Amino acid sequence: MTTEKGEQLRQQLIAAVVKKRAALARAHAVVVRLMEPGIPEAEFLSLLWEIGPSNYADIVDERDINKLCGYPLCSNLLEKVPKQKYAISASKNKVYDLTERKKFCSGYCFKASEYVKAQVPTSPLWLRDRETRASFQLLPRDIKIIKKRIQFK
């Protein structure tokens, strides 16, 4: 290999590392921004392109640590977090793990967050400039979450 080709390869590697670090720094800045309450929907949707699934999980976890609902568009505080780890449904004969669900203030916020999380691109952050930018959708608010009320007489 000639020294000219070696130098060219070295410059390409340095450029790739710089690009990767810049993408990771942008993702970190997005995580920090989305930890705050009161994020506008348009800003939230535009920032999703800059993060990966692990970054989104970090956002949910950090908001939970700060006692905020894990869904970035919700500004509610987590007040009454259940102590139990599992829920048992006798009618469906199933046991549900509540670990992730406890990070959200409501069933809607949990479902909306999972809906957004499924859309976050899995490709490496530093290679996204080669892809077409995805259009993200939010879970519509008019979806009814049915709560059964038991009335005792």
What does this entry look like structurally?
- By secondary structure, the protein is mainly α.
- The protein is built from 4 helices and 2 strands.
- The chain has helices at 3-34, 41-47, 53-65, 107-117, and strands at residues 86-89, 94-97.
- It has a two-stranded antiparallel sheet with strand order 1-2.
- The longest helix has 32 residues, at 3-34.
- The protein is elongated and about 70 Å long.
Question: SSE string, helix = H, strand = E?
Answer: HHHEEH
Pick out the low-confidence regions: 145-153
- Overall form: elongated
Assign the structural class, choosing from mainly alpha, mainly beta, alpha/beta, alpha+beta, or little secondary structure.
mainly alpha
**What is the strand tally?**
2
- The oligomeric state of the chains shown is single chain
Question: Average pLDDT, to the nearest integer?
Answer: 85
Question: Strand order across the biggest sheet?
Answer: 1-2
Radius of gyration: 21 Å
Major beta sheet summary:
2 strands, antiparallel
Furnish the topology, listing elements before pairings.
Layout: H1 3-34, H2 41-47, H3 53-65, E1 86-89, E2 94-97, H4 107-117
Helix pairs in contact: 1-3
Give a brief rundown of this model.
The protein has 153 residues and is mainly alpha-helical. The protein is 41% helix and 5% strand.
